[in-house]
Amino acid sequence: MITVRLAAVGRVWRVAEKAVRNSVSLGVFLAVAAHPGVPFSVVELAGRGITADAAASRWVLEVGKSSLDGFALADKLIDFGEREDQLVGLWQEYGAGEVGVVAFESRLAEIVAAMETWAPVPEGPVEDFSGRLRRVLGPGTDG
User: Fold this and answer.
1) DSSP 8-state code for residue 137
2) Which of 3, 37, 82, 91 is deepest in the core (most CB within 10 A)?
3) Other CB atoms closer than 10 Å to residue 40's CB: what's the count?
């Protein structure tokens, strides 16, 4: 499915297509940041988007799965997917010349802001579960 979505974006994605296998948003943000025609303010927004995407993934794994029932989590993930669809659509419009750089930056800022506020920020310290997500290497394996 990701390959199909990546192919739909066009030639500009070829840079990010090989590096990204699990996140359409990350692929778009990398392509935006690597595009030679965008101003630095757009590159900065892409960086914020990468951070927001990573924070959302981490929240799902560390908080969402254990604190929400399946339907509530599904609704939340659908909401995030809608932001991702907006991002892909915007990038396609920009690549096709249908959106100028000023409008692109404005709409990108709205999408990134929505992604940044998507995962609630806990009030207290959060246990770091990232160690559980790493593959444990056995003897004789490269790592």
Assistant:
1) P
2) 91
3) 7
Which tens digits make up the pLDDT trace of 92-120?
999 999 999 999 999 999 999 999 998 76
- pLDDT band for position 126 (50/70/90)? low
pLDDT tens profile 34-79: 999 999 999 999 999 999 999 998 999 888 888 889 899 999 999 9
Q: What is the pTM of this model?
A: 0.71
Between helices 24-34 and 40-59, what is the axis angle to 10°? 160
Residue 50 to residues 1, 53, 67, 105: CA-CA distances in angstroms? 20, 5, 24, 16
Could you tell me how many residues make up the chain? 143
User: 142: how many CB neighbours lie within 10 A of its CB?
Assistant: 4
Question: Phi, psi (5° rounding) for residue 142?
Answer: -80, 145
3-state helix, strand, coil in the chain (%, to 5): 70, 0, 30
Calculate ∠ Cα 127-118-36, nearest 5°: 105
Residue 70: other Cβ atoms inside 10 A: 8
Pairwise CA distance, residues 132 & 36, whole Å? 38
Q: Under a CB-based contact definition with an 8 Å cutoff, are residues 15 and 34 in contact?
A: yes
